[in-house]
Amino acid sequence: MTHYFDTEKILETWALAEQNGINTTLMRADPHIIEHYQKFRKERGGKLYWIAQTAPEQGDPVENAKRARDNGAIAVYLHGGVADELVKQGNVGELGRIVEGFRQLGIMAGIGAHSSATTQACLRARINTDFHMATINQVNYLCSPPAETAALMKTVHKPWIGYKVLGAG
Question: Is 160 helix (H, G, I), strand (E, B) or coil?
Fold first, then answer.
């Protein structure tokens, strides 16, 4: 895929998305994405909004969110695998600290989750997110059963985004 999605193909794909009415994209907050997103905006006049997923290998998620914000992201969410692991470890307080760090940056803040237990833990702890992310697919790829996720999200009074809807990772 890296041979196919060279710089030109990435910029062309984003332009095609915009031409077809797509106005927002979810992308990792890593140097590769940042470089290409800046090119798209500066060289092509692209206007796609960017919701950034923190990239665990980039270090502290709040610092990663700051880089994303400084490079045009309108929102950021904590990587679902990281959030799930913190909940498994019983460290929901760390999730709250991270989200508060995002909010202090003046950017919309969310938490990704593969497991409904992660979203439930955030709701019980009253973590002040602006939105939630939840995997939802029929192949049970890194997610709770779709009916369980849908039922939970009906109780959430904030926007949520379903992802990995085709089971892709």
Answer: strand
Q: Report CA-CA distances (Å) from 140 to 65, 82, 85, 111.
A: 29, 19, 18, 20
Q: Is the CATH code 3.20.20.70 the one for domain 7-163? A: yes
The domain locations on the chain are 7-163
Structural contact between residues 113 and 134, judged by C-beta atoms closer than 8 angstroms: yes
Classify the C-alpha dihedral 55-60-64-69 as positive or negative. Answer: positive
Q: For residue 22, what pLDDT is reported?
A: 98
Residue type, 101: G
Using one digit for the tens of pLDDT, what is the confidence trace for 14-43? 999 999 999 999 999 999 999 999 999 999
